[in-house]
């Protein structure tokens, strides 16, 4: 088991550095002068050259790349080209907002999705099953940004005063307003997740209910509710867990759009603002933070999958014993 966790951890680190290299190459090998893009073409050439020297853009490419990787290994993301503040400090200020939005949404979306998936699988072919399947297809099809704009219009114009149509209130300042400000962006983020997880669990449950061990449990006289809850559901959760992990990662990365639409001061909005102002160090730092968070979540899901699946756990235990 330890070797499994170590392999997954090493693989995640390698993928993170691959993403970091890709981001560096996309920015530094793109045509044009980065310093000129950041300051604008109408500024004096001397000012542009000063910024280029300050950022080390006139050094050989391999030297820039080595310095970039060295800073990453030391946990340094550089300074903002405009505010001169450390990029990591700017990310730390906004990370709690993104984490709260993503994780709270993930918990409630997972609970709702599991309930819908269980209902649909327990009553196949019924009206509720058909309704859930139709609703989930609609949920998968709705674009996040469009749904966000519609909800802002509805709660700002037609039914104002119930939920804030935008903005953010910290939990330490007012926990009631904080929870209210989570509702609309949480709905936008969770619609697609609920739809995919519910459909995945329904398909897995229907497959599990046809297995021999479920038929054996029924022949032993167990009630249908117990067969579904204690026999079929744990086995159906194995493939669903992987899907949930991937979608939780997408919830965090998808907050880039949602935070911009609802003016939430998280890492996603910081990334969009940095791209608009051509603040390259901040844009790189925010991108790597989102990528690292996505990889960390998927690493935890891989570990939990091995814990939940006895076959995988026994496989790695046997390998460890053989060595």
Architecture overview:
- With 323 residues, the protein is an all-alpha fold.
- It has helices at 2-28, 34-39, 45-55, 61-73, 87-122, 127-141, 144-158, 175-208, 212-219, 224-261, 267-277, 280-308, 310-322.
Contiguous runs where pLDDT drops below 50 for at least 5 residues: none
Mean pLDDT: 79
Structural class: mainly alpha
- The amount of helix comes to over 70%
What fraction of residues sit in β-strands? under 5%
Termini, distance in Å?
A: 13 Å
Radius of gyration over C-alpha positions, nearest whole angstrom:
24 Å
Order of helices and strands: HHHHHHHHHHHHH
Query: Got a strand count?
Result: 0
Task: Enumerate how many helices there are, as a single number.
Answer: 13
**Morphology call:** globular
Main β-sheet: number of strands, strand sense, barrel status?
none
Give the helix/strand layout.
Blueprint: H1 2-28, H2 34-39, H3 45-55, H4 61-73, H5 87-122, H6 127-141, H7 144-158, H8 175-208, H9 212-219, H10 224-261, H11 267-277, H12 280-308, H13 310-322
Helix pairs in contact: 1-4, 1-12, 5-6, 5-8, 5-10, 5-12, 6-8, 7-8, 8-10, 9-10, 10-11, 10-12, 11-12, 12-13
């Amino acid at each position: 088991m330890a070797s499994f966790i170590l392999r997954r951890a090493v693989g995640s680190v390698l993928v993170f550095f691959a993403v970091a290299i890709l981001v560096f190459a996309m920015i530094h090998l793109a045509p044009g002068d980065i310093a000129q893009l950041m300051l604008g073409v109408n500024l004096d050439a001397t000012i542009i050259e000063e910024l280029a020297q300050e950022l080390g853009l006139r050094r050989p490419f391999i030297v820039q790349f080595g310095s970039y990787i060295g800073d990453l290994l030391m946990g340094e993301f550089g300074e903002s080209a405009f505010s001169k503040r450390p990029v990591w400090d700017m990310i730390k200020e906004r990370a709690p907002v993104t984490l709260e939005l993503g994780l709270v949404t993930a918990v409630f979306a997972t609970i709702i999705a599991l309930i819908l998936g269980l209902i649909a699988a327990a009553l196949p072919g019924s009206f509720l099953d058909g309704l859930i399947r139709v609703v989930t297809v609609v949920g998968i099809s709705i674009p996040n940004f469009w749904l966000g704009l519609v909800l802002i219009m509805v709660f700002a114009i037609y039914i104002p005063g119930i939920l804030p149509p935008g903005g953010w209130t910290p939990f330490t300042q007012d926990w009631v307003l904080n929870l209210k400000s989570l509702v609309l962006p949480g709905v936008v983020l969770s619609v697609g997740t609920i739809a995919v997880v519910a459909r995945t669990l329904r398909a897995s449950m229907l497959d599990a209910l046809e297995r021999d061990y479920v038929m054996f449990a029924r022949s032993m006289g167990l009630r249908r509710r117990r067969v579904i809850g204690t026999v079929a559901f744990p086995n159906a959760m194995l493939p669903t867990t992987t899907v949930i992990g991937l979608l939780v990662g997408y919830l965090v990365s998808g907050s880039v759009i949602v935070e911009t639409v609802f003016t939430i001061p998280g890492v996603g909005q910081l990334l969009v603002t940095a791209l608009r102002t051509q603040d390259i160090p901040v844009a790189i730092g925010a991108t790597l933070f989102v990528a690292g968070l996505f990889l960390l979540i998927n690493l935890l899901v891989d570990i939990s999958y091995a814990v939940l699946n006895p076959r995988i756990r026994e496989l790695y235990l046997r390998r460890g014993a053989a060595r």
